[in-house]
Every structure is written in structure tokens, then in C-alpha cells.
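Q: Now give one record:
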Amino acid sequence: MIEWKPPRRRAVLQAGAAIAILILLDGLLFYALFSLPIEWISFFLGALIALSLPLLGLGAYLLYASATLAYYMDRDHVFIRCAGAWHRLPASEIQRATEVTPEMNPLHPPRLARLGYWLGRGYLEGGSQIFFYATRPLGEQLLLFTPQGIYAVSPANPQAFTAALVARQNLGPSGPIAPMVLMDPLWELPLWKDGLIWRLLGVSATLNAGLFAYLSAIYPLLPAVLPLAFDARGSVVRLGPKWEILLLPGLGAATLAINAVLGSLLHRREPLAAYLLAATTMLVQGVLIIAAWRIVF
């Protein structure tokens, strides 16, 4: 099997630099969060840190996808590897390989192309789907036309790639072959398509963020000492410094993180247990909100 590598140094460096910058910014935000007096801006800083996590995830995916992107050929197939997926294209079913030309219908690129990453789905005007697995600009890509769709690739030497493909097509198939997409087990987990568990976790995260926002806003107005524990008759049994009230959203966030991890591990074999964990997480957020209301009022 012959490997054809795309030029990927720029894409890898760009994603790595973006991750490093985000980590540095998060470090500065953490420092400010724990250095400044607690008030409404504390929630704002925490929200920025939370919002950076999906961006870090996107950067990690782009780094992984760019670093693993490669093309392979054997006697009968062209393989495209990207992140956790292998696309197997029968060489005999590739109708033609051509560069993008101005005469083509308008081409709509994937969203990531704006960041310089030609990964994902796009389409030609008229509806033909294009699956982009490239690291170079549109004018330096090859389009592989197949009955299943169009694949955009960017081997470092497109002329040699095309010549090797034509040579294999001239030999003809050695036996019955079919296109196939092979995914790493992680990407095949049903968890990613389970809308219910994501909604439950989303509600829990929203409740936790709301509690933290409210306590951050009223924190400067609270007395230095608060009643933090009550007996069954409602009498105060413990007083403590007001900063301890912030342990409530902290406990909620820890519960959310732990139950989300446990639920993801259980989901494939015991989905009901994963749902119970997610529902329990939501219930815990409600109990913590009631506890905060009891302390404040």
C-alpha cells in the first residue's frame, strides 16, 4: 500500500498555536477569577472559561484531523484517513480526478474552510455533495468523482497521485469490491446521537450557571457571616464565612462533571443508568438552589 501525505505542517501549527493561546488566556482568566473581589464579573470570567472549552475541543479535533490526514492506494482501492475515520473508495468507481476549474458550478465550501481547514461537507450548486479531506486551498485540490459523491483531497504531488490512480484503473478490479466507511469505536458510540441525555445535562449546566451568576451578583451585599446549617426545626446550627456559600455552585459543577463522565461510560451498555445519573444531576442542582435561597433569605 502506498501512502500519499498532504502538506499539513501549516494546519498542524495553526491548530497547535490556537490551542496554546486559548490555554494561556484561560490561565489569565483563572488568575483574575481568584484574584479579584467576588461580584458579578466573577460569573462573567467563569462563563468565558466555560465558553472556551468547546473552542479547545474544536482546536484539538482540527489538530488531530490535520495530523492524521493521509491518502493510501492499494491494488483496488483509494483510502482516505482522517481523525477516526477510514473511507475506502474502489478505484474502479472513481469516474475521474480533476482540479477545480472556473468552469465548474459555484462550489460551497465547508464551514471550517473559513479557518483554513478544508474538512467536512460542502456541495456544488445543483446539489452534488463534496466531502472535503484537504489541507490546501481550493485551487490546489483534486476532486474525485464517485457514484457516492465527490471527494476533495490535496496530495503533495497531485500529478503523481492521478497517474497512480489511472494505472490502477487500467488494471481493472481484482474482484468484487464496495465502498465502505470504517470508524474508530469512540466515534460509533450511541451517546453522541442521544438527544435526551444531552438535554438533561444541558438543563443541569444551565441551572448551575444560573446559581453561580446569582450568588456572584449578590455576594458583595451579603453579611460577612451567614447561617450555613439548620436542624429539622429550622433553627440555625452553624454560622460560617460568606465565601462558603460559593461551595454550592462548586458542588453542583463537580456533580455535573463526575456524573457526565460516569454516564458516558455506562451509556452504551446501561443507558437507563446513564439517564438516572443525568436526572440525578439535575435534581442536585435544584436542591442546591433551594439551599442557597434558604441561606440568603
